[in-house]
Every structure is written in C-alpha cells, then in structure tokens.
C-alpha cells in the first residue's frame, strides 16, 4: 500500500510509518463506531497521547531545571524536525510533512487532520498561544504555525 523503502531517511520513514499506523487505527475506530463516535474516539486518543508526551517532556524539563514555557518546549521537544521542510521565505510555513505525505497517499487527509490537533495540546501544555490558519491536511499548500508565548 505505502511506498516506504528501507533506504528512505530513517526519521521520515518512521514518521510515515507512524502516520500509516494511525490511519489504520483511526479507520478501524470509524468503521466500528461510526463516523461521529469514531472521530470522537480518535480525538480523545490523540489528546491522551499528547498529554502523555507532555508528561515525558515535563520530566525532561525538570531534570534540566527548565521552566515550562515555549523556549523549553523547543529544547525538549520529542518529535524531531528533521524531514519536515519549511519555506525559507516564511519559516512559519511547513511545506513538507512526511505524515501528511502518507495520509495524502492513503486518501485520508481528513483523518490525518484530526491527528494534527495534537499540536494544540502540546503548545498549550507549554504555555504558548498556537494558531494554524493553514493546514496541508485541510487542502492548503502549507501548514502555517503561528506560535508565541502566552502573556
């Protein structure tokens, strides 16, 4: 089904595999529970996953004696940024996301868009204001990340 090769960049390959696993699990939830209940279960799972990731990042921040804020998030972020590409003219814009690439290949951008909501959980957890007015899973050419510390 997917076009992942062992010679692909390891970080990109793992991101695509994670996106593919998410797709199959999300599809199964929707098939078994129906669209509304399935999407509700997916959102709840993504939120729980985000909170689990936060706990791990908080632990690392505590170990390093860092406060919980946006600067610390950038230092203890668990998902590597390698394989995601930004527009050099506008660094807020992510022009390539391996996870989106997989969901597009699977014809499942709508399901992928639910996973993208994890960014709200993560940035909120590090006391940041986050907006994504553009998102590739919603058909836009890029994902625009507008992030700033909460006042």
UniProtKB/TrEMBL annotation:
GO terms for molecular function: hydrolase activity. Keywords: Hydrolase. It comes from the Bacteria. The keyword Hydrolase applies. This is L-2-amino-thiazoline-4-carboxylic acid hydrolase.
